[in-house]
Every structure is written in structure tokens, then in C-alpha cells.
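Title: Prediction job returns without error message
Component: structure pipeline
Severity: low
Priority: P3
Assignee: unassigned

Description:
Job completed but the reporter wants confirmation the result is attached to the right record. Sequence as submitted:
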Amino acid sequence: MNTKENSRETGATALFPASKIARGAGLARQSVYSGLEGVAPAGTVMVDGKSATAWRYEDLPRDWRVEVTRRAVNHGFESGERFLASLAGLWKAPLPWSEIPEKQRAKAVKLQKAMDRTLAAWSEGVRGAELEQMGLEDYQREFGYALKDGRHWRRLLQRTIERDAGEENWQRLELFLPERALLRPKAPRAVARREYVHRELAAKVEDLQIDRKATTLDDCAYFGDAVFHYYEKQAGECTDSREGRRDRRLFRDSLIHYLSETFPDLASRAIGSELKKRFDEKLKKWQQQVRTP
């Protein structure tokens, strides 16, 4: 939700819709409308392309401004008004639902069920021990085990409310996703190896003019010679430090992966069907033969 503040009656004065006020003060949006029932809006703002009534910060009830200011200080802002103005719109998960691991999606569905009654009560203004006890009971019912204490449950509640950004749309499953589900998974080693682009080797193989459909023993010998010369040159640039040895190992693995994908038949004939196991063996034999085909 991109909120564009458009002051209609107050010049450059910042105006805030109920959703931002609710988020900044930790209130349910319905509570904001009820609390401002006798306060005339100061103008309108555009929220998701729709016009919404909005209020000046100084027109908000004093206890709300105190709470907003407290939160502002905790977040490093010099005033509650600037804190409200900084609040982003509707939270969106950084990954599409389809890319979230199934296990984490299932957990989000459970958490939504566990918090359904609690969030409805929160929207009605229920707070404190009554709300927490309700949440802990429902959590145990859905997950089959009890939380050690209320701190974790309070964090879950606060996270959900902050993600909702005052919309009170508790049907959005992404609001209940655990943090770990939002991290893009690290590329597996096989994918990481593809990041190495062995252009120099590819050029050498091209120069050999090898017919991949009808390779001879000489083709295989010269192919292996090109591969090992290339490997020695690149591996020789790695230091003898721990990091250097790791880089050499990663380069070796990337080269083997490249060979198995780009020249599967040729590499199999020149080095061996089990490339990873035979590479060092063939390399040593080539070195003993004075590095010649």
C-alpha cells in the first residue's frame, strides 16, 4: 500500500489516515475511528488509489500522542509526527507464496488459526493478561505444545500487527510466515559452480577443432592436456593459505561440473566416467608425463 499524502485544506501540514495512526499508536483501526468520532478530519489522503479521511497529528488524543512519541524515540525519531510520516504501507513478503517452503507455509496456516480469536479480540480492544492467556491457549491447541512463557507469543502478535499496517486483514497468510521463510535460500553448490565461466578453456577446446560426434584417441589426449594446463594455471594463482586451498578446491569442483555438463562424452573418455574421482589421478599422471598429451 503506497500512501500518498495529499493535503486538501491544510497546505503543507502532514495528514494521517486511520491505518497509520493505528499502526503508530498500537491501536485497532476501529478504535481509532471510535476515538476520533468527535474530531473533524483535517483533509484527505490517497491510500491505494482511494481517498481516505485523515487527521493532523496535533488533533490526536494526548495519550495516543504520548504512545506514538514513545515508539518514535525507540526507533530513533525526534518526534512522533515524523515517526508516523515514516511508516511504510502494507507489508509484503519478499518472496512469492509459491517460493516459500511447504513446511513454512503449513506453519503459517497453523499460526493464523492459532491467532484468529486473539486478533479478533485485539480489534475489539481486548488487551493485557486476558488477551495473552487466550493466545497461549489457542497456540497450544493448534501446535500441540505450550510456549514456555508469553514473551514469544507477544512477539508473534506484535509482528503480525506491524505487518498488517493497520488494515486488520487477518486473512493474509503471509502475515504469519516465520522470518526464516522469508530468506531466499542459498544456491546449492551445483548452482554456485555454474557461476564460474570457463571461457579460456572453452576457447582452447574450440581451437582444437574437436569433432564431438566422432572423437579420436588423439582428440581425447589433447582435450585432457588443455584441461590440465588450464587447471594448473588457475589453481596456481591460489595461495597456500587456508582460504587459498579452499578456493582451489572450489575451482576444481566447478571445473569438473563444467566438464560434466559441457563436454560429458569427451570428458568421460579423456578423464574417466567418474570425473570427480579420476580427475586427481589423471592430473598426476599427466604431470609425470612432463605435461604433454
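Comment from assignee: result matches the submitted record. DSSP finds 13 helices and four strands in the chain.
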